[in-house]
Amino acid sequence: xxxxxxxxxxxxxxxxxxxxxxxxxxxxxxxxxxxxxxxxxxxxxxxxxxxxxxxxxxxxxxxxxxxxxxxxxxxxxxxxxxxxxxxxxxxxxxxxxxxxxxxxxxxxxxxxxxxxxxxxxxxxxxxxxxxxxxxxxxxxxxxxxxxxxxxxxxxxxxxxxxxxxxxxxxxxxxxxxxxx
Length: 180
Hints:
By secondary structure, this protein is of the alpha/beta class. The protein has 5 helices and 4 strands, in the order ααβαβαββα. It has a 4-stranded parallel sheet, sandwiched between helices. α3 (78-92) runs parallel beside α4 (105-115). The longest helix is centred in the N-terminal third of the chain and has 24 residues, at 38-61.
């Protein structure tokens, strides 16, 4: 089989037109600072601002544990109930609960914290036409981020993992209280 044939269809793959190849190569060439749009360079400061804002707000909240989990888990699912119960117990032991602020396991964690009278924190992400903060988050403790990775860093500083999350495993991991 030649290099220009695919394994699945065994058909020849047409090479890119020369102009298209030059356009792609040009897009990957290094640009000097003057060529970068000023809005692109200011993104650094926007990201830094989100980190500073997140760290400052989290430092004022007090001891909390983050519960990770799927947004697609329904309230009838046993993991939803388990997350709600874990959140209640964490509050009874003096911790607040932090989640990603969405539905599913995140909602269950915030619901359990609110039910037990504890701090219920939601670190939401701005996604047009998607996730909104769940109703169990304390209004003064809903923090909305523009950058997904900034939100994940803040969430990972204190965590408990549940099945259904990309970072989850079957054991629970509780890290040190948030300090910087």
